[in-house]
Amino acid sequence: MKIQQLSVFLENKPGQMAGVFDILGSNGVNIITMSTADTEQFGILRIITREWEKAKTVLEEGQFVVNLTPVVAIQVPHKPGGLSSILAIFQKQNINIEYMYAFPCAHTTEAVLIARFEDPDAAIKVVRESENFKALTEEDVFKEKKACEIQS
Amino acid sequence: MTQLATEQTIWDKNESLPREELEALQAKRLKEAVARVYQNVPFYTKKFDDLGISADDINSIEDVRKLPFTVKTDLRDNYPLDLLAVPREKLARLHASSGTTGKPTFAVFTQEDLDTWSDLCARFLYAGGLRKNQFAHVAFGYGLFTGGFGLHYGIERVGAGVIPAASGNTRRQISLLRDLNTETLICTPSYALNIAEVAREEGLDPAKDLPIKFGHFGGEPWTEDMREAIEAELGITAYNNYGLSEVLGPGVAGECPCRNGMHLQEDHFLFELVDPQTDEPVKPGEVGELIITNLTKQATTLLRYRTRDLCVIHEDVCDCGRTTRRMGRVIGRSDDMMIIRGVNVFPSQIEEALLSVEGTTPHYMIELDRPGNLDRVTVSVEIQPHMFSDKMTEMNMLKRAIDKEIRTITGIGVTLNLVQPQTLARFEGKAKRVIDNRFTKEELEK
Known about the structure:
The complex is a heterodimer. Chain A has 2 domains: 2-69, 2-Layer Sandwich (VC0802-like), CATH 3.30.2130; 70-137 and 143-147, ACT domain (Alpha-Beta Plaits, 2-Layer Sandwich), CATH 3.30.70.260. Chain A has 5 helices and 7 strands. Chain A has helices at residues 16-26, 52-61, 82-92, 120-129, 138-144; strands at 2-11, 33-38, 42-48, 66-77, 97-104, 110-117, 134-136. In chain A, a hairpin with a 3-residue loop joins strand 2 and strand 3 (42-48). The longest helix of chain A is centred in the N-terminal third of the chain and has 11 residues, at 16-26. Chain B is α/β, with parallel strands linked by helices. Chain B folds into 2 domains: 6-335, Rossmann fold (3-Layer(aba) Sandwich), CATH 3.40.50.12780; 340-445, ANL, C-terminal domain (GMP Synthetase, Chain A, domain 3, 2-Layer Sandwich), CATH 3.30.300.30. Helix content of chain B is 32%, strand content 22%. Chain B has helices at 19-40, 42-51, 72-77, 111-127, 146-158, 170-180, 189-201, 206-209, 224-234, 347-358, 392-410, 441-445, and strands spanning 91-97, 105-110, 135-138, 161-163, 184-187, 214-217, 237-244, 249-255, 262-264, 269-274, 288-294, 305-311, 313-314, 326-327, 332-333, 338-340, 343-345, 364-369, 376-382, 415-419, 434-436. The two termini of chain B are 21 Å apart.
C-alpha cells in the first residue's frame, strides 16, 4: 500500500530545481505531484511519479542525491473539512505525520493526500478501518491522476 | 603618528650586543642546551645516540646543523609531558595549544622561564612605546592559550598598568579603552580593525575618540595594507610581533620603531632559515622555513623546531641600535595550517570531524574570507546518499552534529554548506582543500 516518493537534495543556488526538471523532462518522466522543503541553505524536493525507477537513475547520473521514501497516498473528499477529518483520526490514534502534501483531481470530487509517517503501516491500518478514506495503491494513484497530470 | 626616538627604546643590553659577543653567547648556550636535553629528555638521548653525537660535537652555532629537527608530531607523540627537561615539580605554569587529535600539546614553564618570557615580551612592548606610567589593554584570550598571558607579563615587567580584557564583547572593550584612557592596545590585527568598525557603528570616530596611541598585533598573518588601515582607522602606530607556544609564546620576535622586520631574540633562540624541501639553508634574502632552537628555556628545550612558517631574515644592521637580525612577515606555511581568528586549524581537523559524524570523509572544501575584518570559515561538504534524508529535521540534525563536532575539535565556529556531489573542484595529486581569500601572496610580501 505504500508508494515510492523520490526525495532529492537541492543545493540552494540558482538553477538547481530547473536542473532536476530538465533531466526528468528530457527523459520523458511525468510528475504527478511534488513538494519542496527548504532552508536558507539547502532544500529537499519530493516527487511522486510513476517512472520513479527511471527518474532515480537519470537524476543520479546527473549527480543529484536521490533517496526513495515510502509514503502513503490517501484519498480524501475534496471539500471543506476533508483534510481535517482524516487528521483528526490520526491524532486520535496518536499517529504522527512527518510531512504531507496533496493534489486534487480535476474531474472528481476526491483529492489525494501524500503523507510521510513514522510508522506507515500503522497509518494504513487506521485509514483502512475508517469509513470515508481510502489508502491508495500505486496503481490507484497513477490511474487516479490520469486526469490531472502535471507536465514536467 | 608617533615615532619614538630610537635610542631610548632598548630594554635589554642583550638586544645590542656586538655580533661576535652575541654569537659566542649563542654557542655557549647551545652547548648547554644540548647537554641538558641529552641528559634529561629520553626522546633526545635516543636521537643523539642514533646519530652518534653529543654536546662535545657542538662548539659553534654552525654546529646546530648536526642536530636533528623536532616537529609538531614529536610533541604529540610525547604527550603529555615526556619532553620535560626538568623534574615535574619545577613546573610553574602549563599552557596548551590546540591539537589535531583533540589532545593539545603543552607549553610549559619553570619560574625562570616565566621570567624570561616576561622580559622578552617587555622588549618589544617597550620598543613600541609602552612606558610604566601608561595602561595597556590585552584583548587576547587568556586561559590555556599562551598569547594573553605572555603579553600580560610583558606589560607588568615594563611596569605599566595592565587591563586583562580578554576577547569578546567589543562594545565593552571600546568603553574600557575610552574610560581608562588607555595608551596601548594588544590583540590580533583583524580584531583591531573590528574594534574600529564597531566604534564607527557607535557613532564614534575611532581615530579621534579612542585614546590608544600604540598597538601590538600578532597571532595571525597580516599585511602592510592592513597595517596602514589600522593606523589610519585607529590613529595609532601599529607594531608586529611573532611567537609560537611550542618554543615560548609571544616574545620570539618583535618590531622596533624602525618597523623594518621583527627583531629576533637571538640571545634566547637560535634561528635558521631552510628550504622546506631540501632542509638546506636558504641563500641570504630568500624565503625559507623558520627553524627555532630554544637556547635558554628550561622546562622544555626544543632543538631545531620546524615552525612551518615561511619568511625572510634581514641580516643588515638596523638603525635602532639593536644588533639582532630581523624576520619579515610570515608570508605562508610549508604545511596546510590555517590561522583563523588567531586559532591554528588544520584541514585534517575538519576531516576528522566529518569522519566522526559520518563514518566516512566526504569531499569537502574550506574557504576563508574576512568580511567586516573578522575571519569567516565556510566549509562546503558534498552530500552523499547515506547522509541524505527526506526529513528536514534529520537534515538539520546532521548539520548541527557536523557544526558541533568541528567546533569541538578545532575550537572555532564555521558556516557549513551542504552541496551536491561533484560540485567541488577536484585536484590531481594532493588535494587543495583550502581557498584563502583573505589576502594574496603579493599583499603578504609587500
